């Protein structure tokens, strides 16, 4: 009797064992197919420049498949997507998280560069320079040369011309950015020769003849208005005093002092505006001659700066 039931018990035990072994294998096979599809979908959104949806799908991938080897790339793609969507603050936050989570990643220097670019776009120049200099200290070409170039551009924006030239000259003559860096550096040598209006001289001219300061700063319309307005008040005050109308003359003189002082202040301000405009146009002309654009190579996960020269 006992012998009769031994075989079914053994068969049942083997069946249960096979089920236990095979089910996880099948689950893992389905799991692999799902994670591949999920990542490919996120990648397609990224390629289609639907960055906000791509962020959601990369996050979904990380949540569903936290042990997958593609999680590192997904984290980086999230950073990329924030950057390309011009969500600079969130890009910086996600890049800092990537740095701390993957300190030995092959994409780490690219992440630091992207962080520096985000900080630069937010005009957080000190932080951006720090990020770029960390690349310079730890990285080789070509990313190091791009970091030199970006630091130089920051110094251009802050009008630290000497430092800007110094960093432009650090770009290797073997790098594609060298022609642009050389053009910028050569142009900055001439920035001291730009047309310049002295604020002190503009104020002096305005004090002698209202409107003369504006004429000196090449603002003829403002010069005419200042001359006519002050002339009218001065003429009115003189006439009133000649008619012994001292109270009215005093009132008009009081207002004329305000207009007269305003004319001097405006002339000085016009000189500063003129100088800033000349510098801004000069720098913009240099930038236009070096048409710089940024792009990311999806296949190689690398950043590039494209430069086209105009002569």
Describe this structure in words.
With 311 residues, the protein is mainly α. It has 3 domains: 16-105, Tetratricopeptide repeat domain (Serine Threonine Protein Phosphatase 5, Tetratricopeptide repeat); 106-172, Tetratricopeptide repeat domain (Serine Threonine Protein Phosphatase 5, Tetratricopeptide repeat), CATH 1.25.40.10; 199-288. It is built from 13 helices and 2 strands. It has helices spanning 2-47, 51-64, 71-84, 88-101, 108-121, 125-138, 143-157, 161-168, 178-189, 199-208, 212-216, 220-242, 246-289; strands at residues 290-297, 302-309. It has a two-stranded antiparallel sheet with strand order 1-2. Helix 3 runs antiparallel to helix 4 (88-101) and helix 4 packs antiparallel against helix 5 (108-121). 29% of the residues are buried. The model is unreliable at 1-5, 18-30 and 294-301 (pLDDT under 50).
Question: Which key phrases capture this entry?
Answer:
311 residues; mainly alpha; Serine Threonine Protein Phosphatase 5, Tetratricopeptide repeat; 3 domains; two-stranded antiparallel ribbon; elongated; disordered N terminus
Secondary structure blueprint with pairings:
Blueprint: H1 2-47, H2 51-64, H3 71-84, H4 88-101, H5 108-121, H6 125-138, H7 143-157, H8 161-168, H9 178-189, H10 199-208, H11 212-216, H12 220-242, H13 246-289, E1 290-297, E2 302-309
Antiparallel strand pairs: 1-2
Helix pairs in contact: 1-2, 2-3, 3-4, 4-5, 5-6, 5-7, 6-7, 7-8, 8-9, 10-13, 12-13
Structure in a nutshell:
The protein has 311 residues and is mainly alpha-helical. It is built from 13 helices and two strands, in the order αααααααααααααββ.
């Amino acid at each position: 009797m006992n012998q009769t039931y031994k075989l079914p018990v053994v068969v049942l035990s083997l069946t249960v064992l096979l089920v236990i072994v095979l089910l996880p294998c099948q689950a893992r096979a389905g799991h692999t197919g799902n994670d591949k599809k999920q990542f490919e979908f996120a990648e397609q959104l990224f390629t289609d420049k639907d960055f906000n949806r791509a962020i959601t799908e990369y996050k979904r991938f990380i949540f569903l498949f936290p042990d997958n080897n593609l999680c590192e790339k997904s984290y980086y793609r999230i950073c990329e997507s924030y950057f390309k969507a011009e969500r600079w603050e969130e890009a910086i936050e996600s890049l800092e998280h990537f740095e701390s989570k993957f300190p030995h990643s092959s994409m780490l220097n690219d992440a630091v560069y992207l962080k520096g670019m985000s900080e630069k776009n937010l005009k957080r120049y000190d932080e951006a320079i720090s990020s770029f200099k960390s690349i310079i200290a730890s990285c080789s070409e070509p990313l190091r040369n791009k970091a030199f170039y970006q630091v130089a551009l920051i110094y251009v924006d802050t009008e630290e011309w000497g430092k800007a030239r110094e960093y432009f000259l650090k770009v290797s003559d073997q790098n594609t950015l060298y022609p642009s860096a050389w053009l910028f550096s050569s142009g900055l040598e001439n920035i001291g020769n730009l047309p310049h209006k002295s604020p002190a001289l503009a104020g002096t001219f305005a004090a002698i003849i209202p409107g003369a300061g504006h004429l000196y700063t090449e603002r003829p319309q403002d010069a005419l208005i200042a001359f006519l307005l002050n002339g009218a008040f001065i003429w009115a005050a003189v006439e009133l005093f000649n008619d012994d109308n001292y109270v009215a003359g005093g009132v008009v003189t009081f207002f004329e002092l305000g207009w007269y002082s305003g004319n001097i202040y405006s002339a000085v301000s016009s000189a500063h505006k003129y100088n800033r405009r000349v510098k801004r146009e000069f720098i913009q002309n240099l930038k236009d001659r070096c048409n710089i654009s940024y792009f990311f190579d999806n296949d190689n996960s690398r950043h590039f700066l494209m430069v086209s020269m105009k002569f």
